[in-house]
Amino acid sequence: MSARAADLQAINEAARAASGASAVMAGSAVPALGFGAVVQTVLGLAVVIGVVFGCAWLARRLGLQGGPRNALVRTIGGAALGGKERVAVVEIGDTWLVLGAAPGNVRLLHTMPAGELPAGAMAASGHPGSGLSGTFAQRFRDALKGEADKRFKTRFTRHDGGAQ
């Protein structure tokens, strides 16, 4: 019987140790905030704020801002001339204004009625529908074909002596 009593005593002590350990674990469930945890939290917050500001800057840079469609001033187009210089076409009422903008300076370069483009403006711009229609590969292929045709004709007219 002493073996059986020893087994029961071991079981009782294990149960007491387990209940005492869980009481200690439950009491120490709130961790103390150390310096590392505070630094990690602050850095995480800084990264999130940086991402928000970065997205706002990118949206402004790409022109994704929403604006009223019936605004008094509407930007028709523009082009960057350098790091800080820019030319823009702005519509006010029934007039287009061509403006040159540089740091601390905006100048009126030209005015024209809205919707009117000067002759040859589309051909010089390189947009589809202008003199340079098609993809780059197609235009390059056409240019090579034209050059090959010129050389082919030149070569045969030299050998013939120009006679037919």
Topology diagram in text:
Elements: H1 2-27, H2 35-62, E1 73-80, E2 86-92, E3 95-102, E4 105-113, H3 121-125, H4 136-160
Antiparallel strand pairs: 1-2, 2-3, 3-4
Describe the structure.
The structure is a single chain. The protein has 164 residues and is α+β, with helices and mostly antiparallel strands. The chain has three domains: 33-64; 71-125; 134-164. Helix content is 51%, strand content 20%. It has four helices and four strands; from the N terminus they run H-H-E-E-E-E-H-H. It has helices at 2-27, 35-62, 121-125, 136-160, and strands at residues 73-80, 86-92, 95-102, 105-113. A four-stranded antiparallel sheet has the order 1-2-3-4, with no helix packed on it. Strand 3 (95-102) and strand 4 (105-113) form a beta hairpin. The longest helix has 28 residues, at 35-62. The radius of gyration is 39 Å and the shape is elongated. The termini are far apart. The model is unreliable at 122-130 (pLDDT under 50).
Mean pLDDT: 76
How many discrete domains?
3
Low-confidence stretches: 122-130
Beta-strand content bin: 15-25%
The class by helix and strand makeup works out as: alpha+beta
Total of helices: 4
Largest sheet geometry: 4 strands, antiparallel
SSE ordering: HHEEEEHH
- The tally of strands reads 4
Strand order of the largest sheet: 1-2-3-4
How far apart are the first and last residues' alpha carbons, in Å? 130 Å
Shape: elongated
Helix fraction bin:
40-55%
